[in-house]
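The records we work with from here on pair a chain with its fold. A complete example follows; check for yourself that the lines match position by position.
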Amino acid sequence: MRIMFLSNTDSLYGANRSMIELIKYLKSMGDDVIVLLPVGGEVIGELEKIGCEYHVVNYKTCVRVGIYNTLGYFTNIRSYLKLLGKIRYWNIDIIHSNTSVLDIGAWLAYSLKIPHVWHVRETLEHYHMKYITPHLYKKLREKSNSTIYISQFLFENARKKYTERKPRVVYNGFDTSENIAYERNKSIEELPINLLVCGMITASKGQTEAVEATRILVQERGINVNLYLAGEVGGRGDAEALKQKIQECDVESYVFPLGFLEDLSPIRSNTDIALQCSRLEGMGRVTVESMLSGIIVVGAASGATAELISDGENGYLYEPGNAVELADKIEYIVRHPEEKRRIEDRAKKMARQKFNSTFANEQIREIYKELLDEKRSAI
């Protein structure tokens, strides 16, 4: 098979990391893969490492924040016309849009009568976005041959809006053969207690909630904690809001923004508790990575986080927006180190079984084969 992926970003956040894991598997099965990117950047290095062909093409997403990106979206017409001939030349069998915020892949597939797979990894509400051409988008979404959702939460959210062909839930896969549960350099009994939040610095990710919980723990309960925030800043307003919150809480000595870290191993090896404060998380790659790393997770009971964590079984949940309850859960973990270790072991075992990349990638490849069989039988 020859599969063409379209990505909407050059970053190495969850969507592209998952795409790269899938590409590795496909190539190991003898399939040919081509990746289209809107700009050059970090992901190119990873594609080159695995010997994957890629092309940088100037296309835009089909979503807007306010009026931003609306005019740019219509420049896709030029890229669409340019790509029609190239895709015929490349002899592509499947077009796979790696995100729900790109529709150019669906247009191309529809025009060329090539099976199209849409990989839904997000909700627009999470990023305060809207589709630029919602009615046309709906038609394209419903004409796609298959739609893959990375969580039951995303599927349930979409089924209220779309009547789709062959919707499937396939959790992101992780390479559990690697020993990412590396040796930990500290235990919960050693102070300070290190908390970690991973993800883009933006209001929907809830970093300010973690800052408030840090204030409660340090100033009201006398617990010595450090909060580390790993992730690039979404926008100037997000950076200012975080800075202001840290100053208001008077916790400058306890909160440490780290920026984007390509390798989280050093910080995770010294982390006691991972926090997932995000709203409407599509799945939460960092939640599963923390489990696989042997780090207990406290997550907001929202979106797919509530799907991944069973409170008291493989982590803890708190009411979204309730920084006091978040602090309560952290304090409970600190006071019960043996229970913490039991939950971490249970979570790691569950994650290894449920999120094995081979199992996930096999499901996606079976979807490709099924769609190609249908196309052949229709000829």
